[in-house]
Prior knowledge:
Largest sheet: 8 strands, antiparallel
Strand content: 35-45%
Structural class: mainly beta
Amino acid sequence: xxxxxxxxxxxxxxxxxxxxxxxxxxxxxxxxxxxxxxxxxxxxxxxxxxxxxxxxxxxxxxxxxxxxxxxxxxxxxxxxxxxxxxxxxxxxxxxxxxxxxxxxxxxxxxxxxxxxxxxxxxxxxxxxxxxxxxxxxxxxxxxxxxxxxxxxxxxxxxxxxxxxxxxxxxxxxxxxxxxxxxxxxxxxxxxxxxxxxxxxxxxxxxxxxxxxxxxxxxxxxxxxxxxxxxxxxxxxxxxxxxxxxxxxxxxxxxxxxxxxxxxxxxxxxxxxxxxxxxxxxxxxxxxxxxxxxxxxxxxxxxxxxxxxxxxxxxxxxxxxxxxxxxxxxxxxxxxxxxxxxxxxxxxxxxxxxxxxxxxxxxxxxxxxxxxxxxxxxxxxxxxxxxxxxxxxxxxxxxxxxxxxxxxxxxxxxxxxxxxxxxxxxxxxxxxxxxxxxxxxxxxxxxxxxxxxxxxxxxxxxxxxxxxxxxxxxxxxxxxxxxxxxxxxxxxxxxxxxxxxxxxxxxxxxxxxxxxxxxxxxxxxxxxxxxxxxxxxxxxxxxxxxxxxxxxxxxxxxxxxxxxxxxxxxxxxxxxxxxxxxxxxxxxxxxxxxxxxxxxxxxxxxxxxxxxxxxxxxxxxxxxxxxxxxxxxxxxxxxxxxxxxxxxxxxxxxxxxxxxxxxxxxxxxxxxxxxxxxxxxxxxxxxxxxxxxxxxxxxxxxxxxxxxxxxxxxxxxxxxxxxxxx
Length: 725
């Protein structure tokens, strides 16, 4: 693909070439797209067919220093001719099939490089030195009729293709309709840019439907209104702009041109116009306008064949309402599906009657139909549901038809615990707290648990994955300051299965991140020294390859406790492997590995599990994922879950375990009771008040797992474990 484009016509071809203008044949079009999608056309503007026997075209491919040193001299096929008013198309033999379907002949030398092109007539040539080139001294007696390009550049090279989008990549050059023959004065033909040249430049890609469409020249004055389109409705503004073009007619003052322009606005004569600049005038909302433009001679008389155009358009009503800051707020932050609300600040209200709508939730708050400023609210939207909000004004006085796409926030607060208490063989990313990223086989739930001495006992099931496949991610509320921790139990059950296992850096399989495409703190595993043994080491860092690795090795089948963190204040990422039980629910010990992220994210909000490839990801089991804001939240001690006390007579919680959405709470007293349910990390996830001796407590919003129920009645307390299946 050529980098620039410059259009020129030759002034001289040394003493060997004589110049004469002929009007029968001339170059009418050149097209250049990607790769070899190139063609040019020769036009016959006479009333008779012309044989091409005595014609040829010469090309310049390597920027010769001396004009006239054509490199390739190309004759037309025997018997070729061009009918009156027709074109002859020459294309590259590897061009698009659509181009080739229109071609009359193909030419290999339409290729990348400095491709000057000349149309010549008569003469002889002889490659006397047999070097494959027709040099200036080897051509005699010919006449150059027309030229496209420059000795040192291709068509368009170095030339300002003004106003044409993407013209440097793909373009066509078409002779303007006012050009009725070849031009041997390339400076006059090319001008300084595409606007004042003999050529029209348009951007193209692979649409070649205008090949062969050139129909010759015209000297008839033409007028065209290009904007606005007739019958259109234009956006509200204080001024209207009417754009138009004039061809084959010079608009000037004082009789120095062909004439000038008269125009009317809504039937009323306006001042005479002696240029082709845009017409501008003041407009009002909701008003229709008619603009009439006509070319007249220097005396102001209508041309013998009148040339005029009319455009009618309407100005739409203004849109005064402005929707400004949008705020999303989680009503609750639990491991289940919560609700969120949206507030939308506005200005410019009280200017129309506005209809507000949302495809989800309940619209309320301030009404812009009666208030100049305020806040629109949308409530009761389920987490995970994106919404579309619209505000539409009354068409009689407002053009407002506003729309905002609002994505759901993540309403999962921390700490978060997943014991993978899902059905055996379930797909992890099908569960409510998880999402699938990319494609391939999935991370699966499997029966059984991993356990670590001193850590709270695992419940539910575990997950497994290996090789390549889809990623699974769980998101939570943004952590933009302080530290976020993640802990889990981890076992390598077998090494990579690929034929070329990666023992350089293995593969990373877990990360703390901002979203599902970033991996800001990555956990790696690699065989050490290779897959012939049973040992591996662990890497950790922000890097996408070659992180720092542990000096210790671990064995296939070992259950490891992993804790990883990201400190948003210091940008420090840290890793602990098998921390001592004396640190559980206390303070973090010295990390095993750590580094500072040079390109920190704005927040950490995602935990990712990743399957890289059969050469990089071993068979892995993971259990008891905990994500929290403190070390203590992700390292709970075993003893915490066994709390049970009873100061309340007749206290009972049943059924336990519970598989439905409620459980029964009984005591011997009718006194009021405050009921609290806590996660195993100590976070209160439910609080309600009941009275009577037999009560039903709704736990529909809680996930499966182990909880603590605390009841306070008349100053007395009772607690019990509660297992939700």
